[in-house]
Amino acid sequence: MSRRITCLVSLLLLGACASTSGAPLAETSARLSMHDFMKKVIDPAANIVFAAGNEEEGPKDPAKEAAKWKAALEAAGTLQESGRLLLVAPRARAEKEWTGAGQLMIDAAAAASAAAADRNLEAAFEAGGKLYDSCNGCHSKYIHGKT
Ligand code: HEC
User: Fold this and answer.
1) Using the 8-state DSSP alphabet, how is residue 54 labeled?
2) How many angstroms separate the CA atoms of 128 and 133, rounded?
3) Is the shortest distance between the CB of 36 and ligand 1 below 6 Å?
4) Among 95, 108, 144, 146, which one is most buried in terms of CB atoms within 10 A?
5) Segment 28-71, tens digit of pLDDT
């Protein structure tokens, strides 16, 4: 290998290293508080998923229907990943109510996602109910202090 090529290779390697080994993100910029995670990510996404399972009154507008299912599909993806984030460090809690509710949220979101992809109103309604149970399951212990 000529000197020039070796140099180029090292530069490329250095570049690759530099892009992956920056200083760790400050905790506050890396992660939302539980309060904000619920308020800004989970709650708005859940409302979109709940709405998708509700029959709209009056004649259906195809453009509105398409937009509704697309939004529901995206929100379900947000919730599926959010459920996972509740089950990994640092938000995880090694208690069955927490893990059970988190897992139910993931399953409900996956069902909501499939329902949105199929544009299946009944399945979307059922997934919404399951999703609601997951919110309630966790809140009843961890917010309202009931077990
Ligand atoms: C695994 C547990 C868990 C699950 C599942 C869960 N939450 Fe929460 N949620 C919490 C906790 C803990 C808090 C209290 C956060 C805080 O303020 O510290 C909270 C708070 C909230 C709040 C109130 C924020 C505030 O303080 O005003 C809303 C709204 C909320 N959750 C919505 C939802 C919705 C909607 C779902 C279901 C789609 C859900 N949560 C599922 C644990 C959970």
Assistant:
1) S
2) 9
3) no
4) 108
5) 567 899 999 999 999 999 999 999 999 888 888 999 999 999 99
| Alpha-helix residue ranges (DSSP H) falling in 38-120 | 43-52, 62-86, 96-118
Mean pLDDT of all residues in 108-127:
98
Output the pTM of the full model.
0.84
In 29-83 the beta strands, taken as DSSP E runs, fall at: none
Q: How far apart are CA 134 and CA 147, in angstroms?
A: 14
Query: Ligand 1 center to residue 38 CA distance, Å?
Result: 5
Residue 14 predicted with pLDDT over 90: no
Task: Answer whether 117's CB lies under 8 Å from 98's CB.
Answer: no
Give residue 135 CA to ligand 1 midpoint distance, Å: 7
User: Does ligand 1 lie within 6 Å of residue 144's CB atom?
Assistant: no
Domain locations in the chain as residue ranges:
34-142
Q: Identity (one letter) of the amino acid at 30?
A: A
